[in-house]
Description:
The chain is mostly beta strands. The chain contains 3 helices and 11 strands; from the N terminus they run αβββααββββββββ. An 8-stranded antiparallel barrel has the order 1-2-3-4-5-7-8-11. The protein has a 3-stranded mixed β-sheet with strand order 6-10-9, with no helix packed on it.
Amino acid sequence: MKRIIGFLLLFNILTVTTANAxxxxxxxKDEPAVRKRILYLNERxxxxxxxxxxxxxxxxxxxxxxxxxxxxxxxxxxxxxxxxYSPFAMSxxxxxxxxxxxxxxxxxxxxxxxxxxxxxxxxxxxxxxMVIGPHIAYTPAFGKMGLFSTLFFNFDLYFYAGVxxxxxxxxxxxxxxxxxxxxxxxDDPSNQHKxxxxxxxxxxxxxxxxxxxxxxxxxLNRWIAVNVEFRWMYIKRNQAGFDANGDxxxxxxxxxxxxxxxxxxxxxxxxxxxxxxxxxxxGASFFFKQYxxxxx
Length: 296
């Protein structure tokens, strides 16, 4: 009899415990992942002055100064516009290496040996002067980092994509050339120390192409952040300013020296190629309005 009573008591306890467990709900269900989070982006305007420098370029590194203006629709999506200007550029190691192999001046008979001089090679290079364009951005990640376990900073990571309008300052080879429109033959003594080329289209002007990148914001307070950004662009250009596809123009001269047909190196828009252009930007972001609320 005692065993039956004990079994009934145990069964009753298990039944009540199971029923209570079934009625119990997860206290974190439908709750936000982070409470009391500072909402740095929602419905705020971000202005970011920055300095930029190109890298992995063939002939010249450009240094940029400018700013980005961006409006954040919420904590995740935003759109904006950036504009940067390059006041100066610097030759790469490859440019210096190539120049070291070139003569100080053009050869006497460049029709036989059309090698540019150091100065001609340098003058032919294009220079990136301006980059502007709109973009949209997505900020999927945020967090907090610590420095020596004493200083703590909030940060977020964003990605963006858009369209880039790039202005290239053209190089100039025309002062070194004897084009096919001249009335003197390439082998005439007056055309010594000249390149026999037709510069039909210089390597400058505006280019358009896609741009994309990612960046990191580290917040110093509720309205100022340090900004580091990588930018990639894909544009069509002829950095060297020389013939790239090997096409030629020909002209036949009939004069006292005899009939002769000469070929001229042709430089035009067909020598442009799609190329990657990449930058790092370093700046400071300022947010308006200055106050940023906390989440519940």
